[in-house]
Amino acid sequence: MGWVILEILAVLAIVVLVAPVRLIGVWEAMRVEIWLSFLGLRGRIWNRDLAEPSMAKMRKATERLASEQIDPLRLIGVLRENRDTLSRTAHVTLLFLRRLWRSWRLESGHVMVALGTGDPAATGMAHGMISALAGVLASRWPQVRLESHPDFEDAAFESHGRLVFRFRLLDPAWHFLRYMVTLPWRGLARIKRQWALQHS
To answer: What is the DSSP pairing of strand 105-117 with strand 144-150?
Structure first.
């Protein structure tokens, strides 16, 4: 009986790792929503208005950094002393992001941009640039549609759209595991200790 349960769990684990997952991003104005679709189930995993809360958080973070009174010379000294570790970390991180991006497939997309500058000539130029970009995107990703609606009377900007990415959980999980193994953890721990000593 125990082996049967283990076999069922193993099959379920394989199905979860191999089954396609769809990540759906929807935005309108400054409201952004991210949905996850998996095995017929769909749920919203992120929903945020990027207008006011983000600016308040940035202001608080800036005030917190200013209150810590970071000595730029000490910071440069720590970074220079550990430049090999930082270079290795940057290389490994960029490689991880590249592998992660390649494991995702852009399944479909629709983006609408309504733009007006207040100057009909400048609006027409912007519309032409967006239309040219739409042609480039169509040649690279024919499943993505970019629409431009110029407003020759008023100065305004509006955008909404929907992007659908498809991937398997096995791919990002494997890339993340490789990333964690290849990070120079000893060097990063040394940087953390040195930075702590600078503030002691």
So the answer is: parallel
Please compute the mean of the pLDDT values over residues 108-137 and round it to a whole number. Answer: 89
Q: How far apart are the first and last CA of the chain?
A: 59
Determine the 3-state secondary structure of 157 from DSSP.
strand
pLDDT band at 185 (very low <50, low <70, confident <90, very high): very high
Question: Is residue 114 predicted with pLDDT exceeding 70?
Answer: yes
**How does strand 41-49 pair with strand 105-117?**
unpaired
132: left (phi over 0), alpha (psi -120 to 50) or beta: alpha
Rounded Cα–Cα distance for residues 185 and 85 (Å): 9
Amino acid letter, residue 77: G
- The DSSP H or E segment spanning 35 is strand 31-38
CA distance 186 to 141: 42
Query: What whole-number distance in Å separates Cα of residue 134 and Cα of residue 124?
Result: 15
DSSP H helices, the chain, are 2-18, 52-68, 72-81, 83-102, 120-140, 170-182, 185-198
The CB density around residue 69, as the number of other CB atoms within 10 Å, is 7
Measured in whole angstroms, the distance separating CA 29 from the mean position of its chain's CA atoms is: 18
pTM, entire model: 0.72
